[in-house]
Amino acid sequence: MSTHARPLAVWLAAASDSQLSDLFGARSVRPDSSWSDFFDAAEELLDPASIDRMLPRLTLPEATALHRAVAGALEADGSDTADVGDPTDESAALIALALLRPDGTAYPPVVEAVAARDAPPPPLALSAAAPATQIAEAHAAERAFTSVAALADVLMMARDTPLTVLTSGNVAAGEKRRMADAGLPVDIVDALVVLAADAALVTTTNRQLRLTPLGESWLRLTALERWAQLSEAYRAALPRGLRSADGGWVPVPLWEHQHPWDPSWPERSAALRESARLLGLIADDSSEPAWAVPIRGGRRAEPAALRQLLPAEVDRIFLQNDLSAIAPGPLAPALDVRLRGIAARESAAQASSYRFTVESVSHGLASGETASSILDFLEQLSLTGIPQPLEYLVAQTAQRHGLVRVFTDDVTERTRVASDDATLLDAMGVDQSLRPLGLSRDAAGLTSRVGRDTVYWALTDARYPATIVGADGRPQVVDRNPPPSPDASKAVSYDALIARLRRQQGPDADAAWLDRELEAAVRTKAVLVVEVAMPDGSTRELLLEASGLGGGRLRGRDRAADVERTLPVKSIRSARVFDPSLIPPTTSSP
């Protein structure tokens, strides 16, 4: 057992629950750790592997302070008189991370780990970026508008069908091909997905990217509100090394140096900088647009300057006889989301085009729209009224929709498919694409052992006019990809672990530490220098090869007398592992 773990264990025992929780979280301690007491915790936190995992997370000021403390310890060669300097915020942070003792000196395992690393670079004194020129601001605004619009398109795709992602978190190649066919800039999709994840607009479950309820709400915000929410979430997700004291971020040119011991940091800092560029928070020449100043300073977004450079949103469209629709400008997001629920968008630009089809209108009906709601919405939206072909398409599709009813039989608990059109039932019964459903025909229709929702979506994909009905016979709206509910289990809590450590916290830390030292010595058959209290009040040191511990007694062979001894543990004042190197060499007489 390492002797340097004891002072850390004492510090841990004296720390508050919130301090312990912050420490365990920063050091990535598992909440289900098998630690039995604070000595176990100290041993694990000072394990070289645990220290090596923590050092890359240190900021430049923290790494510099720790390197300075280690250099002082090495210069003093372990002397207690080493000058640790005046306490700083960084040293306080390092103490809270269990890398420095409360007196500012480094634990020996930390000294070894830091000594093997290069010294952090000296900090650079840089002010904030220069204000962007009008041309640079115009380019940044256009890029922000494009990025926000592209992300909205990605979320719309995830809304309809969850996107497959790789283990790295990047979107799968097949999905990117589908996005490329839709005219999306696939080279920035992965960066946009990271921004969406930072803003909690999407979540990944079983390697599928799904829209969250917050993402559903975000889709209906204006372009400026979308941008503001993304920008503030981006700032909140920045690593500690990039955050400034006012809640913003340090000058961008400093970013690449802020985590000097993280080998992956150059790549990550470049990705973070690219994300800021996509949001228009920095210009191509690293200058700063006016709308980025409040966010960089830790304040709420103020997009007034950005608004002047963005195209105005429109709330009207042109409906045409060829079943298409033209928006003369960027359609207001809430209107765009609803319109894309009943029409397929064909082109995305400042003037977008949409097309109505039987499939698109059926999709809207399956999502809860009715013929009346669709026509009322289009009447309010159109600058040219509703063309007769479009009105006929909506009416005919609505009339056909629901011709096939899917429900669960209360008696047999099987899925039943019913329709007044016997020919349609016969067609479904022999349709090879529906063979996995195992549909069987009876007098009342078709039945299947497959679940109701699965049968319904299979019929819908095969373009049958199906609808789900409840026990009362009324149509029900079923979301094919419902947004995931917040997973409370993802919130890490150390309450149980801390409570267990507190229960094992005895009043006599010296006795508890001695027991652990003796147990470790017995396990390793170590030779101990044992200081024993004698009955007359004096003390005596014995060189004992520990062999057993039990019943409050330590057993071992006395190396000096070559006899077996049994010592009461309560009489042992201290014990340390015998180090032969500390014995001075003998010199022969001349």
From TrEMBL:
InterPro entries: XPB/Ssl2_N. It holds the Pfam family Helicase_C_3. Residues 318-441 form the Helicase XPB/Ssl2 N-terminal domain. This is Helicase XPB/Ssl2 N-terminal domain-containing protein. It comes from Microbacterium murale. The lineage of its organism: Bacteria, Bacillati, Actinomycetota, Actinomycetes, Micrococcales.
